[in-house]
Amino acid sequence: MGFFTSSSRQDQAAKSFAGMSYLLWIDGVGTYLVYLPETLRIGGPGETGVASSLSSQWADLALLANLSRHHASITRSGENYFLEAQAPVFCNQRAVNDRVLLTDLAAFRLNTDTVLTFRQPTALSASACLEFTSHHQPQQRLDGVVLMAETCLLGASSENHVVCPHWPGTVILYRQGNQVLCRSRLKIDVNQITVSEGAVLTPGSLVTGPELRFRWEVVS
């Protein structure tokens, strides 16, 4: 998936709102899906050319795996997350017949061999992460998924949602109304403008600072 052109960025900026999902491209770290809606549907691949490289007609996260079109869902309810099975699902090696509460480091298997790990790295945020434990990925490779409630923490320690080992501090992404903003105690620039308070992220925003650089894009 490439970056947007200037005109398409302007179009997407006008549409930018908290119900969308975004890609976070972090130099030297990886690419992460930041997913804002409350429910994430997971399934197998869709029809070529019909949906994006991350989703299908039936799933928000479509993996290149032997899965049903809509195999399972993860739903955020307050500070809790529930895994709901639409097809064979096992959580911590136990079959999920209806739905189950996910806890930190829960490993769940879809069908026979597709495994993801759920993580809630800090009690200070209701956001959570999904890690691809088996080799199964969407068409566009990702390094992880952040299920963003109100905040997403980026930094060096394991209590961040995205661990950036060489960063000298933490950058916080947070929701405010229908917008996503970022702030940090570090000196950071957004689109080459130094920001001292929260700065709105729009599609194509480039954030730079001491030993850090990332870009924010809407999932097409």
Provide a short characterization of the protein structure.
It comes from Gimesia algae. This is FHA domain-containing protein. This protein is mainly beta.
| Count of individual domains | 1
Shape: globular
Strand order of the largest sheet: 8-7-10-11-12-13-2-1-22-21-18-19
Poorly predicted ranges: 1-18
Structural class: mainly beta
Mean pLDDT: 90
- How would you characterize the largest beta sheet? 12 strands, mixed
Order of helices and strands: HEEEEEEEEEEEEEEEEEEEEEE
CATH topology: Tumour Suppressor Smad4
Q: How many beta strands in the DSSP annotation?
A: 22
CATH level 1 name: Mainly Beta
Organism: Gimesia algae
Protein name: FHA domain-containing protein
How would you describe the overall organization of this protein?
This protein is mainly beta. It has a single domain, classed as Sandwich (Tumour Suppressor Smad4). 5% of the residues lie in helices and 44% in strands. It is built from 1 helix and 22 strands. It has one helix spanning 6-15, and strands at 21-26, 30-35, 39-43, 61-62, 72-77, 80-85, 89-91, 94-95, 99-101, 107-110, 114-119, 128-132, 144-147, 151-155, 162-163, 171-176, 179-184, 188-190, 193-195, 199-200, 205-209, 212-218. Strands 8-7-10-11-12-13-2-1-22-21-18-19 form a 12-stranded mixed sheet, with no helix packed on it. The longest helix has 10 residues, at 6-15. Residues 1-18 have low confidence and may be disordered. This is FHA domain-containing protein.
